[in-house]
Amino acid sequence: MIPETGHFALILALFVAVVQATVPMIGASRGDRAWMDLSRPAAVAQFLLIAIAFGALVTCYVTSDFSVLNVAQNSHTDKPMFYKVSGVWANHEGSMLLWVFILSLYGMGVAAAGGNLPPALRARALAVQAMISVGFILFILLTSNPFARLDPAPFNGNGMNPLLQDPGLAFHPPMLYLGYVGFSMAFSFAIAALIEGRVDAAWARWVRPWSLLAWCSLTLGIGLGSWWAYYTLGWGGWWYWDPVENASFMPWLAGTALLHSSIVVEKRDTLKAWTILLAIVTFSLSLLGTFLVRSGVLTSVHSFASDPARGVFVLALLVVVTGGSLTLFTFRAASLKGGGLFAPISREGSLLLNNVLMSTGAGTVLLGTLYPLFTDALNLGKVSVGAPFFNSVFLPLMVPMVMTMAIGPMMQWKRGDLAGALSRLKVAFVLALAVAVATWLLAGGSASPLWAAGGLGLAAWLFVGTAVEWAERVRLGRCSFGEFLQRCGHLPRSAYGMTITHAGLAVVIVGITGSTAWKTEQIQVMHPGDTVNVAGYQVTLDGTQDNVPGPNYTALRATFTARKDGRLIAVMHPEKRQYTMPPRPTTDAAIHTNLIGDLYAVIGDPDGTGGFVTRLYYNPLVPWIFIGALIMVGGGLVSLTDRRYRVGAPLRTARAAAAAARA
Amino acid sequence: MTARRLFAAFALMIIAAGPAFAVQPDEMLKDPKLEARARELSKDLRCLVCQNENIDDSNADLAHDLRVLLRQRLAAGDTDQQAKQYLVARYGDYVLLKPPFNAETLVLWLGPGGLLLAGLGFAVAYYRRRVTAAAAADPAAAPLSEAESRRLTALLEDDKKS
Amino acid sequence: MRRWLVALPVTVFFVLVGFFIWRLVLMEHGDTPNIIPSVMINKPAPQFDLPPVVLDKPGLKLADLKGHVTLVNFFASWCIPCREEHPLLRGLGEKVRLVGIVYKDRPEQARAYLERLGDPYQAIGIINANLDSRDPQSQVGIDFGVTGVPESFLVDKQGVIRFKQIGPFTPEDINKKLLPLVAELSK
Predict the structure, then answer these.
(1) Beta partners for A559?
(2) Does A430 reach chain B within 8 Å, measured CB to CB?
(3) Same structural domain for residues B118 and B89?
(4) CB of A522 within 8 Å of any CB in chain B?
(5) What's the complex ipTM?
(6) Which residues are CB-contacts of B122 (< 8 A; sequence separation ≥ 6)?
(7) On the CB side of A218, how many CA atoms lie within 13 Å of its CA?
(8) Is residue A653 a part of any domain in this protein?
């Protein structure tokens, strides 16, 4: 009964979505308030129905109802409860249901929190949101029904790929989808604004919290995925430029550009058409990612079982959503007249430069990801475009980007003073240079690549530059302590958000540079009692224990002790696991971190003479990548709490203004 | 259908090969310099039967063969370029994860630079058009020309002095 | 803003869609992006000399290919698609000179495979019978550009590779591609 209830709720949600997509839209064009306001209860109803459907699928997984095909294919009674739940979205059908669930969650968010929105804008945005819903619910019902029954029900299920049975990967998809789908809000508002032909500061202010929330989720999702790859795949890599990773990175780049260009719309009432275009492109890139991952048009290490029929459906959705919106953009963009003028050297100018660089970055990733497809189609032969290409093309693009990031915030609106900004950044420049030279000298000149010094110097430039900008704003050291505290309190949260996020990126850059330049690796056969020296640590294989039982696997567990100058640093237990269902081997690396670097141990195959292949790594500064990403997310969240974006704030301000006007 | 069967074959090969993990100690060369070169080269070579992995990371059988072959070539005195060329002659440019610069990859290599220039060009054009349009509509609203701003600075300087 | 400029995004998008449709249509016909065309076509077959695997049949070396149009079939007993392909190969033996190369397999297992399913090959060589890839012979597969099994190469009278089949043959592949080419090269 439960799966049928879920299925039925999903069908009902489709009808509600159809109503939500049409009636408010018509109402908005006619100016009929009742029809427009139907969008709010409809959005709530749609959310509740999809929540019932999603809850039904979770219940099927939790109770291991193998009469449901999806559960039988992806779950097993022995699986720990945590992974029974995360198993819901570890497969194509379930993950699509999570997708529409999150979509409806955002829709309900607008309906609930959007009391201050102009009714027509809200009605249109929710209608656009519902159109996307209709497309994806149809996709689930027609090609990927998670509630399909299996008769007779098998005694047990096929289990879940053990690589996915991991806490990092349990939260990775929901975070990623909160990001992808979150950008649908900016998209829906952009379409609504195009229809109305009006984009202004208020519009930018309404859209910003949703884009910020999406950006934070996406950043966290990408970070989690990268972290998972780092500790699961067994050789300490954290980014592979695989098409699937690129699919999540492109919307991130475009979304970051969107966050920055919408500041210009909000503050200066210009760059409107461009911002609208970015909103469309960001969400379109999310959809494109969904298409690439699920259609099999590109080869990727990690993708869902690809199916051309599903590919056709998602492509059709993409054509309707993106093709339709870009066509609308073509005809309506001219109606969005820009307001404030600005000089090239100004805050606006630097944000525009950020946008050019971010878009070029997104375009480069798109070009590299799709290039094999292009040459193949044009009969130019098959080419591979892998990590070495992206590293050599994408990273140089980011250098001017990071350099501007320190200068931009120092600029005045309208007309900036480049020489003045640079002179105020003298400290940052001197410190960056010092860091670079110190790196080059300390890391042994030729022993480390020259770009490592550049990377750390760049990070120092960004970090100190960001700090200088903050210090100037609060007049640190130039006024009394009391005034300083007062200024700290008055500085808007969004300014803190910017400072924290930019500083977080500096931390990420340190991590990327350090882990790439100074990774140490020792691969060898070790017998119990053998000691290997890894980056100053003496790592001893004390012994191994076979057939260690786990909940749904047995493991070969090794015990390593790491010492430094005779002092015990850590006891590490890497495992080589053999899962029972599906019968697959995995490696479970042991990581000892001191937040500066990770000691990383992997136990491999026995060599037949009592020894084992072991891989020991020292990954310097890797934790900084993930800590930096968390700091960036934190900055985004701080910005999200800014008074300007708080629910109802614009309304209260408007009322206060009105009251003041009356008085 | 052919392709699906082929996948089955490859899948079987990997399982038959068992859980080996990327580069193995017994594959490695004694000479650390040569081995380091082999590792670097391996990262640029695609494991042909896997989905987008280099041969250094891959545990497929073919990747193992290629790693061994690569080391044999280097031990025999090949330069990095010669060793790569040896595989390109047999598997085509497809084996290189960083495609060479040639007619087929022109757009790939020049594309990012082209995008950047186009972006900057659009930005400049946008700015110019805005200024002209604004100047035409309302001369007072136009930003100062360079000469004007110099005069303004001079005037302000004078103010400070006095 | 100029009209052509605002129309640029939608234009680029639909060009992209064109590429995607092309790929999806090909995939419907079984051609996935993983299939790599061989660069060995129209190049001389590489040098090799492989020991025999079946007692009363010779091994295989490059010189054996000269003077006949020959289909060189790479196979292994552990490969399921090879088994599916096998009945077709038996029928093919009358129409083209067929030789086999055993790939990553033990000789006794290859022999058992051929005893059970029949042996359509005129000569069979085995690469790397002891499964040690440091064996110089294991290079033969790489020299041919083999990525997996089954794969087949059609070699002309001069010893030049003219056609490569990746994956098992289907009757359609044989009738539409292989046999017309054999007829042409045999002239």
Answers:
(1) A543
(2) no
(3) no
(4) no
(5) 0.87
(6) A356, C5
(7) 28
(8) no
Tokens 């289909």 found at: C71
Question: What would the pLDDT profile of B133-158 be if each residue is shown by its tens digit?
Answer: 766 665 555 555 666 667 667 766 66
Q: What is the DSSP string of A183-195?
A: HHHHHHHHHHHHH
Interchain CB distance below 8 Å, A330 and C14: no
Tell me: do B74 and B128 sit in the same domain. Answer: no
d(CA A351, CA A346): 9
Compare CB distances from C10 to A296, A327, A334 and report the shortest one's residue: A327
Q: Answer yes or no: is A45 within a domain.
A: yes
What three-state secondary structure class fits B40?
helix
Same domain for A224 and A282: yes
Residue B46 in 3-state DSSP? strand
Considering only residues 444 to 473 of chain A, which have any Cβ-Cβ distance to chain B shorter than 8 Å? none
| CB neighbours of residue B33 within 10 Å | 9
Per-residue pLDDT of A111-156, as tens digits, reads: 888 778 888 999 999 999 999 999 999 999 998 899 988 888 888 8
Contact A373 C23 (CB under 8 A): yes
Residues B84 and B156 in one domain: no
Is residue A35 a part of any domain in this protein? yes
Which candidate, A575, A545, A573, A569, places its Cα nearest to that of A559? A573
Q: Is the dihedral of CA A223, A225, A231, A236 positive or negative?
A: negative
Q: A500 is in which domain, residue-wise?
A: 403-514
Interface-testing mutation among C24, C32, C34, C147, with chain A (most A C-beta atoms within 10 A): C24
Q: CA triplet A507, A509, A512: central angle to 5 degrees?
A: 115
- Residue A529, token pair as written in the block: 């009692």
Q: Return the residue matching tokens 């039982």.
A: A549
Low-confidence ranges of chain C (pLDDT < 50): 1
β-strand pairing of A612-620 with A537-549: unpaired
Q: Are residues A19 and A38 in the same domain?
A: yes
Pairing of strands A575-579, A553-564: antiparallel
Based on the structure, what is the number of domains in chain B?
Answer: 2
Q: What residues in C contact B133, CB-CB < 8 Å?
A: none
Q: Do residues A566 and A504 share a domain?
A: no
Asked if the C-beta of A662 comes within 8 angstroms of chain C's C-beta atoms, the answer is no
Name the residue among A301, A367, A393 with its Cβ closest to that of B53.
Answer: A301
Chain Cα centroid distance, residue A597? 24
Q: Is residue A331 in some structural domain?
A: yes
Residue of C11, C21, C23 best to disrupt the A interface, most CBs of A under 10 A: C23
Instruction: Report whether pLDDT(A167) > 60.
Output: yes
Residues B74 and B8 in one domain: yes
Q: Is C149 helix (H, G, I), strand (E, B) or coil?
A: coil
- Domain that includes residue B110, residue range: 105-161
- B77 CA to chain A: closest CA distance, Å? 24
- The total domain count for chain A is 4
Look at A276-285, A411-420, A514-523, B99-108 and tell me which has the smallest mean pLDDT: A411-420
pLDDT at A58 over 50: yes
Q: Do C142 and B69 touch (CB under 8 A)?
A: yes
Question: Residues with Cβ < 8 Å from C65, sequence gap 6 or more?
Answer: C45, C72, C99, C155, C159
| pLDDT beyond 60 at A303 | no
Please check the confidence at residue A647 and state whether its pLDDT lies above 60.
Answer: no
Residue by residue, DSSP assigns A392-434 as HHHHHHHHHHHHHHHHGGGSPSSS--HHHHHHHTHHHHHHHHH
Q: Alpha carbon of C45 to those of B82, B114, C61, C62, C99: distances in Å?
A: 20, 42, 11, 7, 14
B89 lies in the same domain as B113 = no
B54 in contact with A, Cβ within 8 Å:
yes
Q: Are residues A420 and A433 in the same domain?
A: yes
The 3-state DSSP class for residue C63 equals helix
Q: Are A387 and A418 members of one domain?
A: no
Q: How far apart are CA A524 and CA A506, in angstroms?
A: 35
